[in-house]
Structure formats: C-alpha cells, structure tokens
Amino acid sequence: MAVAGVLALQGDFEAHARILRRAGAEAIEVRTAADLDAAYGLIIPGGESTTMLKLLREEDLFEGLRAFGQTRPIFGTCAGAILLAKHVTAPAQVSLGLIDIDVERNAYGRQLDSRIVTIDAPGLDGGKMEAVFIRAPIIRRAGPEVGVLARYQGSPVLVEQGRHMAATFHPELTGDLRVHRYFLEKVEENAAQARPVSVHR
Amino acid sequence: MFLDEQFRLKVGLAEMLKGGVIMDVTNAEQAVIAEKAGAAAVMALERVPADIRKEGGVARMAPISKIREIMSAVSIPVMAKARIGHFMEARVLEALEVDYIDESEVLTPADEEHHIAKRDFKVPFVCGARNLGEALRRIAEGAAMIRTKGEAGSGNIVEAVRHIRTIVKEMKQLTVLGKEELVHEAKNLQAPLELVEWVAEHGKLPVPNFSAGGIATPADAALVMQLGAEAVFVGSGIFKSSDPDARARAIVKAATYYKDPAKLLEASEGLGIGMPGLDVSQLPQSELLQTRGW
C-alpha cells in the first residue's frame, strides 16, 4: 500500500487524506521535515499559499520539500499548484519551481467567480470530470516538458511533469478518485524504483 | 437537498481556510501585517470588538472605502461583517464582491427576530453559534461556515470553550439516537430534521466549524482547536496587544501546531503584553454580545 503524505500546515488537507484512503492508500499528515521520512509522495493541498509559504520558510520545510521533490512525487492542488510552479504572479511570490509552469493567482477573480464546471480530461480514464475552482489560479505558461491532462477555457488545469502533478481545481472536493489514483500510480512506480530517502537533517 | 452546487462552492472556500487564522483588521496597514504574518483571511470591520464594547453606540458594517482599501492591499480572502438581519448591508457587501460575509452579533442587530435569508445570496456567509440548535438554524438559512460566538472583545476564552464544547457534545449525542428520537431532537433543537439526521450520521456539521470570541494567545487558539474547532478567528486579540505582528505570527503557528506543545512553547515566547481581558461573569447581561441572535 502506498504511503502518501499530505502537507498539513493549513488548508483542506483532511479532504485529501480522506480521498487518498478511499483510493486505497495510507495518508499521513506532514507538518515537519521529520514527517516526510515516512512518505513516498506528497500532496500539497488547497488553502492559502501565502500562509503555507510563511510556515514552510519559518519551519525550515521549504528546502526540505524541494529536496523531497528531487526524488519523490509531489502533487499540488490550487495553492499547492502555486507552490510547485516555476513563476508566480499577482502578486509575485517565491515557489518551489518543481514544475515548469507560470501561474497567476486568483486569476478568475474573487469568491463570486468561483465555479463548478465539467471539463474534458482526455489524459484520464473516462474523460469528462467535475472540477471545483475556488479563487483559482490560471496556468499562463506550461513548458515543453509539461504534459497537459485537462484544460478549461483553453488553459491547462491539470498537468504533469515527470513524477510531479498540479491541478488548479480541487479533485479532493468531489467524489471522483481518478486524479488521486493517477497520482498514486506515480507514487507506487517511484517507490518501486528507489528506496526511501531521508530528507530530514 | 441543501448540498447543491452553489452551497458546495460556498463551503469549498471555508474548507480552504481550515487550519488557519482569520484576523480582524480595520485598515489596509493592519491587513498587510495580517497577511505577512500568515493569516488565511482577514475580516474587515470599522472597530475591533474591544473598541465597540468600550465606545458603545451603534456598530454598523465598515465604511466601503475601508473595505475597498483592504481588498486592494491583500491577496488573501477578505470577509466583512453585516448586522444580524440587515440583508441590505449584505447586498452592498455582495455587490462589493467581498469573499465572505459574517452576519455578526458583534455589530448592533438590525432585526431582533430574523436572520438574513442567506441562501438567496451568491456570496457565502459565516454565522456565530453557541449551541448546535443555533448552528443548524443558521445552516438552514444558508450559512456555509459556523463559528462559536464566544464573547467578542473580552480577551477571555471561557465562552468560546463553552460554545465549542456544547456544539461538539450535542453532535456526539445525536450519533447514538434512533430515527424516532432524532425527530424529537429536531423539535428540541428547533432545527430542520434533514440537518439533524445529517449530523447524526456524520458526527459533525455539514459545514466547517470554526471558533471565535475571546482568543488572545497561541495557547487559546490551540485549546479551541483541540476541542474540535477547525480554524480560528482572532478579533481584538492581535491589534489590541503590545506587538500585533509577533502575536499574529504566533497564533498562525499555534493553529498549525496545536497538537505539539514544544512548538506552542516556541510560539508563546517573546510576545509582549496581551490585550486586557474582561471577566465575562462580571459583565451585565445587557453587555453580552453572544445573546444577540437566536
């Protein structure tokens, strides 16, 4: 059984943990660098990226996550996608740079512009899926190494680059397990290739 | 069913605030301090509860210019308070596109019998509650987030503790009742059966359950989180303390590491002096804010 961590500094980490368990994985909450040792992959949940960033830096987890991402898969949703991006705008802020995308924060507008829509997800079994966008970012640029698994209004909303994934919407808020299963496949594949590495110093 | 698409979107934003701290601010400068300290959202209001208590008079929705100033100063969600029952203040805030409205007992109620019919709005609402019945009535009206009322502006955690303990205990009790008993409980709680049944089945509210009213220290925040709150609101506790920036950072840390006493100790050091507190049991009934609304 895959053991996936969920970054539990702030945000909807419990929703992710629930979905991971439903998808047959073991989910652990990650609040310190030591917690990462037991995880074979990590989800960075939705929430406020500014809050997570502040805690990551204060608790010396920022470099820990970057090191973790050098060998293990990370999947970020919404705020998590912002943290994984190469460049962040509106306003500019630092990020882990693990996926070659440029992301504009709150790009659809405020809460009144949040929406639930049906999108085409040709990259996943079964195609169409419900996507919940909440004060969501927009991926303005995706590099050549980035695979687009789903788009909405022409922009990529679900992407992958090697072992990492990012979604600008919240698959953890629907009953659809496909996105998490897709990520867990990456986690299992990665775990089969390498032994656990300690990033805790 | 109450969990329609519109309601899921409203609850969705509340989900994103979990584990976070929502801070009361009265201007852009305070909002920036809050955001930099790691606030998950800010609440725009004209005066913090401690000042409302001290100065008296009618407390209304904040001036629009102030809310606008705050909205343009930060990238995190901005909430604003409307008076209980004042659906036109709420309409104005919706037109302004704030991210959440707090129909709040901290402001002077505009209607002593009716709360706002919150379902009719596209903007989500948070409401205060002292017990499960109150929480479920607010959810039935359309609230997508519940917070304890506590006793705002008191700097005293005792009421928030009472309210979160009451709500959690009343939810636990529902989970062991049979179908017929739930009908009877719905009557006692003065809440719709559908919601009572939902809580009995899941053992929790169908919306995020936060805490507010009297949180002044990192340990206060950790206490209510341990008791079942999923995030905290801090009103006067930050900007009425001697070092708002340090205290804001510390409470943010406490909301994340509420199970970790060593981290809480780190968070509790070097904060200067907390806001002055009030003994709630010495307050006359007429000065209690928590008894506003029903």
Reconstruct the topology from this structure.
The complex is a heterodimer of chains A (201) and B (294).
Chain A: E1 3-7, H1 13-22, E2 26-30, E3 41-44, H2 49-58, H3 62-71, E4 74-77, H4 79-84, E5 87-89, E6 101-104, E7 115-119, E8 129-133, E9 138-142, E10 147-152, E11 155-161, E12 164-167, H5 178-193
Parallel strand pairs in A: 1-2, 1-3, 3-4, 4-12, 5-6
Antiparallel strand pairs in A: 6-9, 7-8, 10-11, 11-12
Chain B: H1 5-16, E1 21-25, H2 28-37, E2 41-44, H3 49-55, H4 64-73, E3 78-83, H5 87-95, E4 100-104, E5 125-129, H6 132-141, E6 145-148, H7 158-175, H8 179-189, H9 193-202, E7 209-210, H10 218-226, E8 232-234, H11 236-239, H12 244-256, H13 261-268
Parallel strand pairs in B: 1-2, 1-8, 2-3, 3-4, 4-5, 5-6, 6-7
Secondary structure tally: strands of chain B: 8
From the N-terminal CA to the C-terminal CA of chain A, the straight-line distance is: 27 Å
**Percentage of residues in DSSP E strands of chain B:** 5-15%
Kindly report how far apart the N and C termini of chain B lie: 24 Å
Query: What value does the Rg of chain A take, in angstroms?
Result: 15 Å
Helix proportion of chain B: 40-55%
**Beta strands of chain A, count:** 12
